[in-house]
## 1
Amino acid sequence: MGDKVKYKRVLLKISGEALMGQREYGLDPDMVERIAQEVRTVHGLGVEICLVIGGGNIFRGLSGAAAGMERATADYMGMLATVINSLAMQNALERLDVPTRVQSAIPMSTVAEPYIRRRAVRHLEKGRIIIFGAGTGNPFFTTDTAAALRASEMNCDLLLKGTKVDGVYDADPVKNPRAKRYDRLTYHRVLTEDLGVMDHSAISLARENRIPIAVFSINQPGAFAEVIAGRGQFTIVS
Ligand code: UDP
């Protein structure tokens, strides 16, 4: 570790959609590999890394409920989707020789370890990346909240949200070229102005446990490592 690293233990949340690439559904193996490479670079700097991956590229509980399903059942399907993504990411990381464990909040011992906090800490201490699958294990929550929860449980110094853009803007930067990126925001402002960084329960949990949130572009090569060094373009919420 040196001036390249400002944080010792971090949790990176990636949405399921980030794994789709240009596709409309599911996983793009090239995209999964690209993100795995970003993760490997930061792992190589000696940072302990936890990952939480969403499931929106496969199934979202709210869409299932809108189509007439019972919400809780649809949410369980969404949580299973996150396990699929977690296994794909584990596979990509291990192909790059990065030791990785998946722990699932819904026990399914033939495909992943169950979530056991102290065991997860041990994995990190041994230099393994840990991917938390199945969200919080409870319906009516999101993987953003799961990310804030696990970051709190694992005593992470930083929660990162990898998005399509390089931070939080005052307007949609895709539609409005004059949109301005915030360098810094407070949790309070994000909540009161509903700035859409993460859902409210995730922001509240991070605030309560004093974990800063960095929003950055997962599509920008090298950006994850830059944020870890405290450089580059991103928005920090603290
Ligand atoms: N989900 C849930 N409880 C959790 C986490 C996720 O019920 O703790 C379900 C929920 O239906 C959600 C789906 O899993 O729509 C996929 O997660 P999310 O929408 O957060 O994924 P992302 O948008 O990040 O890809």
## 2
Amino acid sequence: TKWVYTFGDGAAEGRAGDRNLLGGKGANLAEMCSLGLPVPPGFTITTAACNWYYANGQTYPDGLENDVKSALDHIGAITGGRFGDPSRLLLVSVRSGARASMPGMMDTVLNLGLNDVTVKALADASGDARFAYDSYRRFIQMYSNVVLDLDHDVFEEILEEEKARQGYELDTEFTASQWQGVIALYKQKIEEELGKPFPQDPQEQLWGAIGAVFSSWMNHRAITYRRLHDIPESWGTAVNVQAMVFGNMGETSATGVAFTRNPSTGEKLLYGEFLVNAQGEDVVAGIRTPQNITEAARIAAGSDKPSLQKLMPEAFQSFVEISNQLEKHYRDMQDLEFTIERGKLWMLQTRSGKRTAKAALKIAVEMAAEGLITRNEAVKRIDPTSLDQLLHPTIDPKAERNVVAMGLPASPGAATGEIVFSSDEAEEMRSAGRKVILVRVETSPEDIHGMHASEGILTTRGGMTSHAAVVARGMGKPCVSGAGQLRVDYRAGTMTAMGQTFKKGDIITIDGANGQVLKGAVPMLQPELSGDFAAIMEWADGSRRLKVRTNAETPTDARMARSFGAEGIGLCRTEHMFFDGARIVAMREMILADTEKDRRAALDKLLPMQRSDFVELFEIMAGLPVTIRLLDPPLHEFLPKTDEEVAEVAAAMNVPEEKLRHRTEALHEFNPMLGHRGCRLAVSYPEIAEMQARAIFEAAVEAGKKTGSPVVPEIMVPLVGLKKELDFVKARIDAVAKQVMTESGVTIDYLTGTMIELPRAAIRAHVIAESAEFFSFGTNDLTQTTFGISRDDAASFLETYRQKGIIEQDPFVSLDIDGVGELVRIGAEKGRATRPDIKLGICGEHGGDPASIAFCESIGLDYVSCSPFRVPIARLAAAQAAI
Ligand code: ADP
Ligand code: MG
Ligand code: MG
């Protein structure tokens, strides 16, 4: 087996396509080399070696050691160095790189190979002792942290103390001999902590770092990240070993990161940050505030620190050329890392850049316009679920803004919440149902769970490419970073800004669009869905076959769904209409009635209310199909629960408490999900279904007159298992239809159909289709009844199932295609066999889940129906499934 792939000097053994074996970083380093770009030479140890390592008790495969040795010689041949030889110095970085980019999850060690001897050689060779000792102390810090597992703070403390003693503000002010002093203190501390000295042997250092990269694949942070992003453990990570280039060799050296287009807005402008006389992660870590790369960006940001364009015009020019070349080559926006060593540019990384949903849309639309990609590719480039971010509110421009601090607009959207200062607190408060803003000096990978639990993130340090900014953008959470005027005191639990002090629990708002931090809650606006969003949606609509409807019963939801592009209502749950105000009273009267006559009297009160609901829905959906489901839940859901409620309702309705209690007891069920509900109610109390049918038909007549276009209602009978159940209810519906037509003199077209939500219904679909003119697969209940799992009780064990690898995904979130999906397929096929033009749709959460939508496309359903906010997601996912 080939465990090691080399790259360097315009050639490489791997290619961009080898990402699975070499990891993203390694594959792209190889590709950049092959393109002839300036990349320090190096080699990649494959992900297969990582898997071998874990499969064999954390040992290395035979031959790896030799392969690494010759690969080091390969580097040396290019650079003229020799690893471990002070007379021909060769220092390397050891970098992890998994298949999918996992920002900040894995650790990198720079300047490896330095020791008490080689550091002198480095000082001589570079003619810059300050630089050499700065590099050595960085190496000791990183290596101790990553490989020797010593806490970062140990070194920070020593450093801060020394800085204070010298009266320095920046690390760059230290002289060579002062760094030597710091190094001595570091080494002393390490010996104290570990009982042995810092390793001096470069070979030992190298293998320590390689082992640490492999081990970090299984560290807590990496495991959490993989779980959150559905990355399989079996992928493993690669290790990249690469000759060092130095951005910390004084004022003509620098290091930076850049995006070929703005990752926040998508604007086609090179966008990035750099630091002079700095190394590697200084930019990302927010140790100093970085400078802009282009003049244009510097001016836009109002910064008085010179841009790279101004400071190092030649290196800047080659960087611009290379970034253009890479974007064209990869046909996507790239995220780049570079270092300038004494004026010479070196490329250290390229990958497809993470971006906000807004930027993703703009970039896709503009790249299609530039002819770089096709429209279908543009549609395919957008992650449907990310659209969610765009559907979230922003601050009303007319709102009064009480600005207490300014930071960088690191991730768009606005959020309001209570201040918390730690990730654990964020999680606690979130699970207590509170909305929080996580306020930190800066975030680290340990904060991922807290960031998830928060509405938004606010940091006082760090730039647009800081950890907080990158991760928040990925999560679609609003973030303001680097709000330097804010003083956070973790110990006191306070945040101070412009003389005002905020405590934990105080409410603030952050505006990720402009970096403002505002006092209190601020009115928000719904987003506008025009421009790039509309363009992608239009292209998607042109490519999709599936129709997209919405689940809605209130006028507000229906209107919102229409504005999101819903093509009708796929599920109107009528029970939701019975809960408020006078309705619940009439409903309870109906339930408490002893005779059919009393029941009809109560239903007569409900009829006009129900009718006016439907008129409004039909008007909003003018000309579009509307599917209305007859009453579905068991009746006891409408009765009061606690003693106080019972007393209150009894008094209001003027019935004895006893009677109410008695009825509640009579309606009690041990397993209501499988109880007296759905069409079973209509069979027991046909007058309920009749009232609803009448309300629907009368509303259809009325709305038809008002809008001028005839309404074709689709009446849906829930929880049918037997054809005879459907026939029984359908006969009542048909009779009412006839009556209303006679009374109104208007002919009404309508469809009667059923939900397929019981396995029996799916299996007997060919028989049920004799009576049903449409099927709507109610996959929420169908999942419950197929698995025999109650959705309301599943949370307690499904997560355990996930953790133990028994299921990969919650079947209530993404359709279980093998089981529940098989029943849907059977139902669809059998339904069509009997009635070739039967309308087929799916309602329930799965109607808004991209993977489930792809399945619906594959079996040729006519439409999916989902909640209003998921309509754009479904439109896009339906197009992607069809392309
Ligand atoms: P991450 O995946 O966290 O970005 P990287 O391996 O890319 O980790 O490295 C961290 C930092 O060190 C980056 O800024 C990178 O550009 C820099 N770096 C890595 N290898 C070298 C090298 N050989 N010479 C100079 N800088 C390097
Ligand atoms: Mg990197
Ligand atoms: Mg159901």
